[in-house]
## 1
Amino acid sequence: MKSFWDERYGEADFVYGVEPNEFLVSAARWLPAGSSILSLGEGEGRNAVFLAMRGFNVHGVDGSDVGLAKAQSLARARGAQIQTEVADLAVFEPAARSYGAVISISAHLPSVIRNRLYPLVENCLLPNGIILLEAYSENQLARGTGGPKDSDMLMTVAKIEREFPNCEPILLRELEREVREGKYHTGMASVVQFIGKKKA
Ligand SMILES: C[S@@+](CC[C@H](N)C(=O)[O-])C[C@H]1O[C@@H](n2cnc3c(N)ncnc32)[C@H](O)[C@@H]1O
């Protein structure tokens, strides 16, 4: 899998663009001001840099060193500082009670990885911490506009409810929206969006 992403990010362009994800922008007001944020599958840095420029302390984790090198170059170009870590989310251990929020934008993972990782994600949040996630839904399989072609890696509202039992939904919905994020995310898409607050 790493070689797949390294090859994709080996392209000269920022393959998902340099603008932040629209859902993240629209929901950023829910993120505790000035907090530390863990970004799962950060890739080329567009979301981390957006958050860093708004005063968050961002820790972006991704399996692709090629992607994270581009993330650091984007941060330098924008005069922002981000912390990046090359790690496989299948074994990554976020520190407990350390983050005000965790974001997961198009970080599609197989259930075997999610089932180990997501309890650790809930546990790495500070009290009242926020999870903000957008992922293609299972209904995206019928479309040719992006995302993995494996329903196990795609989300549903029910999967979110099951996989984040310790977070109270502030927003949890599946919807269709136009996604234009570089050449691999290219049109009307079915997505699941989640903002959850860690239960006290
Ligand atoms: C579709 S890209 C999204 C990148 C970024 N979040 C964005 O919105 O631009 C998915 C990212 O997840 C990362 N990823 C996938 N599986 C991973 C794993 N097991 N461990 C670490 N990173 C992984 C890939 O390297 C890739 O950067």
## 2
Amino acid sequence: MKLTLKIWRQKDANTKGKIVEYQLNDVSPDMSFLEMLDVLNQNLIDKDDEPIAFDHDCREGICGMCSMYINGRAHGPDTEITVCQLHMRSFKDGDTIYIEPWRAKAFPVIKDLIVDRTAFDRIQHAGGFISVNTSGNTQDANNILISKYDADEAMDSATCIGCGACVASCKNSSAMLFVSAKVSQFALLPQGRVEATQRVLNMVKQMDEEGFGNCTNTGACEVECPKSISLTNIARMNREYLKASL
Ligand code: SF4
Ligand code: FES
């Protein structure tokens, strides 16, 4: 396939960025999207040009690093997958593809397609953990009975990979889907109830301090989430927050 790639280039957070056009020939439909970018970068390096900076790590849909907008959609045209799982067979010969970084005040651009998502780390540090008694009398977690329904719901919430697509696709840049998934995965389990009150209050406070917007229930986050994190997590977090505030 021959492709025209229009890619956001930006030297750093303080320099104005712009779309730059590249031509790429001999793209195999079997390549992943990131492999296609690897080939483009090798071509740029061969010409002594600066390669395009983009985040990636696992390349198997579990780390949440490979975050970018492709043709105006977070993680590209296919649903329920990350960019690293997207393959070039989803595009046609002669296509023009626009590739841009996440756009959100709380995710400033570091370089080209890489944005700073440490705001998510700080929200996690504010409450995304449990404390375990390690005095020697620690109870085996398998001794604590948990209903299948709650275990499944907690597991579904825990599949959030922190990619930030929910923020990027929200017109308000709200992080409610991410934070609610992190609150829910603990709220549903007895181990998470011990610190539940402080957890939800602290994580929501940190979310607000980071500059994420408010949720207005448009649901774009759920549509673009590669892990199908449900809006019911937001409803659960709101209930947890109300209980904690009272
Ligand atoms: S809720 Fe979905 S879109 Fe948001 S960070 Fe988690 S996995 Fe990514
Ligand atoms: S590189 Fe890890 S999810 Fe894509």
